[in-house]
Amino acid sequence: PPPVATSKEEQDRLLRHQPDQPQNPKVLRIAVIGAPNAGKSTLSNQLLGRKVFPVSQKVHTTRCKARGVVTYEDTQLIILDTPGLTSPFKAKRHKLDEAMLTDPWDSMKHADLVSDHWTRNCLSKEVLKCLSRFPRVPSVLVLNKVDLLKKKFILLELITELTEGIVDGKKLEVRSAFKHNSSSSAKSPLQITQAFPPKNRAHEPRCLQETDQAHEGSSLDNSGDMRASKSSLVTEEAQVPKHDGPRDLKNMKGWPYFQEIFMLAALRGEEVDTLKRYLLMQAKPGPWEFHSGVLTSQSPQEICDNIIREKILEYLPLEVPYGVIQVTEVWEEGPSGELLIMQNLLVPRKSHMMMLIGKGGKVISRIAQEAGQDLMNVFLCDVHLKLKVEVKS
């Protein structure tokens, strides 16, 4: 993937530049939606091949919708990385802009396909509301962070819950065969297969398939004396009612209109290529929106702000990082082509300043070092980042 330009002028020129259209261009706009902290930005970064969206274990790291661009041969994927779908009450609690309530919905209006993330054993009400509001936009379900599951057979139950037992218009059936083997402690792989793939899509990767190498830990937890010899999800033809309008969401836990299911660990990059290949094949004929040299619609300063804020979120406790205001005071090219950045971090009280600086300046130094390294990977040049902390008047 191309690096991001270090100057706003160069990035603006690329964004304004007429796209270098191939002979038969194809395009697909993808809205990545889900609950806060579902791993949407991590997945977007993996699809892009370079980290341009902030990632943190705290919720609401992504503050506004931003576009990432994947250009491969004659196809362009436009990834709409959106803030987590949230409620007005939670938005007020975390001091979020009103845009964070509207941006995910706005992204859906412009999407050709939506990728949704799961939350525990049901989809969040905000996600269901969004899917129901835009029923004609095709959607796929991404089960992210599956490497964290010790008992992989839980995936079978999850898939049934999150899809209401239906995928691509076909009914799912869970079949498990167990055999007694008290002396063995070996783990057998979990296989999830689609028994009857549609004939006209036989060339597509089977997204419901999971193999040994796909997941390092994709075997059943064997704490007892029962070992799985086979465990599978099978699809059968089903008459699924057409979905032409909003549904009653009160008792809904899942969505029966997903076209595919993907299981991956975006942080480690596992199976992301399978999803990427699928998305490339879903692209439709149409002109590219961006020049092939564009990786993101964000300005260099926005990327810098987001990456520094990501580190602040990681190292400051509770609600403290949400009150930090960032002011860039220096952004210039050094004598050897390096990027020089100085940013002032304004906090509301002295106690917050002491936390951000840390004992002996260790916290602020670590933030500057890690953010600087990430920025070097984005811009592909040396970056000298200096941070200072002040109490805002």
TrEMBL record:
Pfam families: KH_2, MMR_HSR1. The keyword Ribosomal protein does not apply. InterPro entries: G_ERA_dom, GTP-bd, GTPase_Era-like, KH_dom-like_a/b, KH_dom_type_2, KH_sf_prok-type, P-loop_NTPase, Small_GTP-bd. Residues 1-23, 183-246 are annotated as: Disordered. The keyword Ligase does not apply. SUPFAM superfamilies: P-loop containing nucleoside triphosphate hydrolases (SSF52540), Prokaryotic type KH domain (KH-domain type II) (SSF54814). It is a peripheral membrane protein. It comes from the Eukaryota. Residues 7-19, 201-215 have a biased composition (Basic and acidic residues). Belongs to the TRAFAC class TrmE-Era-EngA-EngB-Septin-like GTPase superfamily. Era GTPase family. Residues 34-41 are annotated as: G1. Residues 183-194 have a biased composition (Polar residues). Its main location: mitochondrion. PANTHER family: GTPASE ERA, GTPASE ERA, MITOCHONDRIAL. Residues 81-84 are annotated as: G3. This is GTPase Era, mitochondrial. Probable GTPase that plays a role in the mitochondrial ribosomal small subunit assembly. Specifically binds the 12S mitochondrial rRNA (12S mt-rRNA) to a 33 nucleotide section delineating the 3' terminal stem-loop region. May act as a chaperone that protects the 12S mt-rRNA on the 28S mitoribosomal subunit during ribosomal small subunit assembly. One of its GO terms (molecular function) is GTP binding. Gene3D superfamilies: 3.30.300.20, P-loop containing nucleotide triphosphate hydrolases. GO terms for cellular component: mitochondrial inner membrane; mitochondrial matrix. It is found in: Mitochondrion inner membrane; Mitochondrion matrix. Residues 60-64 are annotated as: G2. Keywords: GTP-binding, Membrane, Mitochondrion, Mitochondrion inner membrane, Nucleotide-binding, Ribosome biogenesis, RNA-binding, rRNA-binding, Transit peptide. Residues 26-286 form the Era-type G domain.
